[in-house]
Amino acid sequence: MGGQAWLADILAAVMLATAAYCLSRLVLSSRARRTTERPVDAAHVLMGVAMAGMLVPRLRIFYVGGWEVVFGLAAAGFAWLAARELLSPSSTRTHPRHHHLQHVLACIAMVYMLAAATTTASGSGGSGMGGMAGTMTARFPTLAGLLTLGLVGYVIWNADRLTSLARVPVPVSAAAASAPVPGLVPASRAGSAGIVALADDGDAAAVARSAQPGRAGPLSPRLAACCEIAMGVTMGYMMITML
After folding, report:
1. Residues 1, 134: contact at Cβ < 8 Å?
2. Per-residue model confidence (pLDDT) at position 213
3. Quick count: other Cβ atoms within 10 Å of Cβ 142?
4. 213 vs 136, which has greater pLDDT?
5. What is the pLDDT of residues 140-172, one digit of tens each?
6. Mean pLDDT over residues 80-88, rounded?
7. Dmax over Cα atoms in the chain, in whole Å?
8. pTM of the entire structure?
9. How many whole angstroms separate alpha carbon 158 and alpha carbon 236?
10. From CA 175, how far away is CA 158, in angstroms rounded?
11. Distance (Å, whole) CA 133 – CA 55
12. 184 Cβ contact partners less than 8 Å away, ≥ 6 residues apart
């Protein structure tokens, strides 16, 4: 496999950052009891760590061959979820029917690349995943090309739907929501329904910030889509350099 060492270092850093962010999503969603796609976040954590190890061999933290089992099981799990989506009478409100198909594709691509890395490591005496440093090649170029096209397609699809994803409102407790805000005059006293008057112009900025229901939080679907884009771009790069 060819490629620039500096670019591999940058992509490895991006993958580790993506894995750390997805791990934080798992923790935050559990603590806040928020509904998120935890299987996807968990898969992204594993993918980020695994790809960083393939891009930069010194970052490898798992034995050669072990990741293939992990992503093989993940591919089967996402295939089951994708089948449920495709057989459902209608798309869910959170994502379209084919949403999990991209994760099936990503897991298959991971297994393909890891298998090539394992073959390379075996041929070099088991020195590690050195393939991404310059020696790993595709055993089935046609399959690698098809996987690459699929990954590129899903990157474009995710980028196209970024603007349509609703941002996650920052949760506000019931007590905080019902508490009076200094500087506000109730609409009934302001003389016009639906219009809130400000008693003090100095509080306008603070009130405006507190009244934004659509602010993007750390669990925003847009940030999750950005993670999928980063994963897809990195996988595409790795697959192309194997051809």
Report:
1. yes
2. 41
3. 9
4. 136
5. 788 888 999 999 999 999 898 887 765 444 444
6. 83
7. 82
8. 0.70
9. 14
10. 37
11. 6
12. 196, 197, 198, 199, 203, 207
